[in-house]
Amino acid sequence: GFEEGLLDVIESAEGDGVLIFEAISAVETINFGGDDHDEHGGEDEHAHDGADPHFFTDPARMALAAEAIVKFLVANIDGVDVAALEVNAAAYISELKALDLEVEMVLANIPTQRRVLVTNHEVFGYFADRYGFEVVGTVIPSGTTVDGASARELVELAEVIEHEDVPAIFADTSSSGELAFTLAEEVGDIDVVELFSESLGSDDSDGATYLNMVRTNAGRIAEALAR
Predict the structure, then answer these.
(1) Cα(195)–Cα(226) distance, rounded to whole angstroms?
(2) Is the Cα torsion angle 203, 207, 210, 216 positive or negative in sign?
(3) CA distance 24 to 197
(4) Contact residues for 53 (Cβ-Cβ < 8 A; gap 6+)
(5) 168-212 confidence digits (pLDDT tens)
(6) How many whole angstroms from its chain centre is CA 101?
(7) 195-215 b/e with 16+ CB inside 10 Å = b?
(8) Are 226 and 109 in contact (CB under 8 A)?
(9) Mapping DSSP to helix (H, G, I), strand (E, B) and coil, where does residue 167 land?
(10) For 203, phi and psi rounded to 5 degrees?
């Protein structure tokens, strides 16, 4: 359910005998728009129907995925230097786990009533699940930036924002935030804060690596919701 434009390429490669590993199979998933969890298993190509694919917004789940990738490579790829791979992987997984704790600390001072997110589209469900937030609305009510939002949906979201006293709308650095800014103008007295969501930033940005991306997002969320 993510980068669906690549499905034909992946299926073609698999048909040619290329091994395929779905990283999401290693983590506990949640469904779009809800808190239902699903333990993934099996290799059914439709196993992810209804599941939110954006698990990478949670570094704790990324650590589990990294561990699973290493096991897959060791088990399936001939000629791998297992010792070197495991040493390097352990070092990075340690960084992921440390990042998870760091993010938890950065967000710790946000009071419960402020732990609400309005995002450009449905991408931060796993972040919310891990760190105790609620996604109360999305500008584009979908997991893909391809879809759009109707005028009625934007009016309803404006009402939610006012009711919840939401101080910020979180837009994406990698896609248009035009609707988010339009909504902010309609609501008034609300910031639009850009987060790195589905893409890393440029080499000289605060989101140049995965670790920096998550760290930056957490800091911007904490700053925006603290006011």
Answers:
(1) 16
(2) positive
(3) 17
(4) 1, 2, 24, 143
(5) 889 887 666 677 877 777 777 788 889 998 788 889 998 899 999
(6) 17
(7) bbbbeebeeeebbeebbbbbb
(8) yes
(9) coil
(10) -60, -30
